[in-house]
Write a structure and sequence with these properties.
- It contains 21 helices and 16 strands.
- It is α/β, with parallel strands linked by helices.
- It has three domains: 144 residues, Periplasmic binding protein-like II (D-Maltodextrin-Binding Protein, domain 2), CATH 3.40.190; 194 residues, Periplasmic binding protein-like II (D-Maltodextrin-Binding Protein, domain 2); 189 residues, Rossmann fold.
- The strands form three sheets. Strands 4, 5, 6, 7, 8 and 10 form a six-stranded mixed sheet that branches. The protein has a six-stranded mixed sheet with strand order 13-12-11-14-15-16, with helices on both faces. Strands 2-1-3-9 form a four-stranded mixed sheet.
- β1, α2 and β2 form a beta-alpha-beta unit.
- α3 runs parallel beside α4, α4 packs across α15 and α19 runs parallel beside α20.
- The chain starts with a helix and ends with a helix.
């Protein structure tokens, strides 16, 4: 690492100790933002929601008025893809929280998709013609510094074509003099929910054309272009609903001295590299300063073919649920966000300003470039929607075993007049819609009705298409009974998937449980964690867990997923299970 790089990392961590402490002690309270003033709800993309809440706190403590009226600002963190899907509906479901008066997704691409999807559903546009940017951050490829140097960084220009060549090389990293690094593995998020995933797939399509010209529908149909993009997707270790899954796993690998054995590159926003290199991959202001900087830092690769910019537009929603006065309040908050003091808060935390200027954490660090190179224009809405749809056909296929808890506690009430099992059944059926007919999917339930067995194989691992309706029927017919042999069934499920694990698919297990291990014959959590870690290294089998309901053992779920380099999902509030299932299956 260069002297400047080390100095910046030290400064970032030292600064985080102060900034993190302040934010932890003075967490913005935007539930009751400004007494006596109407509340303006702003849905903001997750990566900037904490900073938006800090700015909202400043705004709410000011005495600003609009035409003599005061307003308070409440920030609601929401993934851009999730918000786009909800805003496509004819009305806002109260189960999603307070209806937003304004929306700031991570990139303008989501506004284009919202316009396209509402028009396709014959619904009126709810967006203004112009929606100003709040902040910006380009989409980059985050690479461990030694791997980037092996590709010629910082002197050489690196792009998607270079990664594809390395991914297709039979010797993998050995072709670059590093056989110990194995095959090239890419981390990418699901473009249906994630901005970095959507931008990455657009970038790959552009790279496949060999030009930076606008994509067209005819371009997307070109077999050579599709082969290129499919080749990139084949190098994916697994997908994710957020890049934070990869970065937190990478931090754990770095802690264990194995950072170079995880993914080779991850498509992320530039700001996420700043967070990771400060020891805070989640970007959560409350956790800043609690972890040391990584031993192996990440560097930003700006694809030579061009990249999209996450420009964080601020759209005041001209929706039937939003009052005109609140829309005026939202516009005033946008003006406040773009003032120099607020822009400095964003740049101090790794963003660029709304007009692309960097702060010291980027400009004074060797791991970044002030000039990002070719900035691509987003495709037209119909092309963008087609890119999103084409990803389903071109993505790496999945081989996933669903393991569902049907123990007696699942009969308990979820607080809505329905049982936990009934809510989970609906969520699982809805989640299956994300998987394609060619994905291999199996279904186990636990405990088994037969004495001495810990699970029941409802359907074996097989292409989903021919058994989709049977799987839906089996899920809908489940009946709760028995205890929770959590460790035993997780052990057996991981073993079953590892027996047929292949490099050309994503090999995974999804375990949903609403309780704790209740099987004395297997209470060896340490042994299970050790075995899962070994299988993750050998066959790439990952175990994603869902802790469902207030009695679920979330801590154990995290140990299981961490060991297998996957992610644990918190559905301790049963009403979140539908969204959680969607997020979990976004990994495939």
């Amino acid at each position: 690492m260069s002297t400047n790089g080390r100095a910046l990392l030290a400064a970032a961590v030292a600064g985080a100790l102060v900034i993190g402490g302040v934010h932890w002690l003075n967490r913005p309270d935007t539930d009751t933002p400004r007494e006596g003033c109407p509340t303006v709800v702003v849905a903001a993309s997750v990566e900037k929601s904490d900073l938006m809440a800090e700015v909202a706190d400043r705004y709410n403590k000011s005495d600003r008025t609009v035409n003599g009226a005061c307003y308070g600002i409440a920030i609601s963190a929401m993934a851009s893809g999730v918000a786009e899907k909800r805003l496509t509906d004819a009305s806002w479901d109260p189960a999603w929280g307070s209806a937003p008066d304004a929306w700031s997704p991570a990139a303008s691409t989501w506004l284009q998709l919202l316009r396209h999807d509402r028009a396709a559903s014959d619904r009126p546009d709810i967006l203004a013609d112009d929606n100003a940017s709040v902040v910006s951050t380009p989409i980059v490829l985050a690479m461990p510094e030694p791997k980037a140097r092996a590709l010629g960084w910082p002197e050489a220009a690196i792009g998607w074509s270079d990664l594809l060549a390395l991914a297709n090389h039979p010797a993998g990293w050995a072709s670059k003099g590093h056989p110990e690094w194995g095959a090239f593995k890419l981390g990418k998020t699901n473009p249906n929910v994630s901005t970095s995933g959507l931008s990455a797939i657009v970038g790959a399509f552009v790279a496949a054309t060999g030009t930076s010209s606008d994509l067209t529908l005819d371009t997307l149909r070109d077999p050579r272009v599709r082969d290129f993009v499919a080749g990139v997707e084949k190098s994916v270790a697994h997908y994710g609903d957020t890049a934070l899954t990869f970065l937190t796993n990478l931090q754990r690998a770095d802690d264990a001295g194995a950072a170079l054995g995880y993914v080779s590159a991850v498509a992320v926003e530039e700001k996420s590299i700043v967070d990771y290199n400060a020891g805070n991959p989640t970007g959560d202001l409350q956790t800043l300063g609690r972890h040391a900087a990584p031993r192996v830092p990440l560097v930003a690769i700006y694809p030579k073919e061009g990249t999209l910019n996450s420009d964080s537009p601020f759209a005041v929603l001209e929706a039937p649920w939003s009052e005109l006065g609140k829309q005026s309040g939202a516009r005033d908050f946008l003006d406040y966000l773009r003032e120099p003091a607020q822009q400095e808060l964003f740049t101090d935390n790794g963003f660029r300003t709304f007009d692309g200027r960097t702060g010291i954490v980027i400009s004074d660090c060797d791991f970044f470039a002030e000039d990002v190179g070719v900035v691509l224009s987003p495709p037209s809405p119909p092309v963008l929607a087609a890119v999103r749809a084409d990803w389903t056909d071109l993505r790496k296929p999945a081989r996933v075993l669903l393991v569902l808890d049907v123990s007696g506690s699942m009969a308990g009430s979820a607080g809505t007049g329905r049982s936990r099992l009934e809510l989970a059944q609906t969520a699982a059926v809805n989640g299956l819609a994300q998987l394609s007919d060619t994905d291999e999917v199996g279904l186990w339930t636990f405990p088994a009705p037969a004495q001495g067995q810990v699970f029941w194989e409802q359907l074996p691992l097989a292409p989903l298409g021919p058994q989709r309706q049977s799987m839906i029927a089996r899920i809908q017919q489940l009946v709760p009974a028995g205890g929770t042999p959590l460790y035993a069934v997780t052990r057996k499920a991981s073993q079953a998937v590892s027996l047929g694990a292949r490099d050309d698919v994503i090999n995974a297990v999804v375990v949903m449980t609403d309780g704790q291990n209740e099987y004395p014959e297997d209470d060896d959590l340490a042994g299970l964690v050790r075995q899962l870690g070994e299988r993750a290294l050998e066959g790439g089998v990952r175990v994603f867990t869902i802790a469902y309901g207030e009695d679920a053992d979330l801590g154990t779920a995290r140990q299981i997923s961490d060991a297998s380099r996957a992610a644990a999902y918190d559905a301790t509030d049963p009403l979140t299970i539908d969204e959680v299932f969607t997020n979990v299956l976004s990994n495939f």
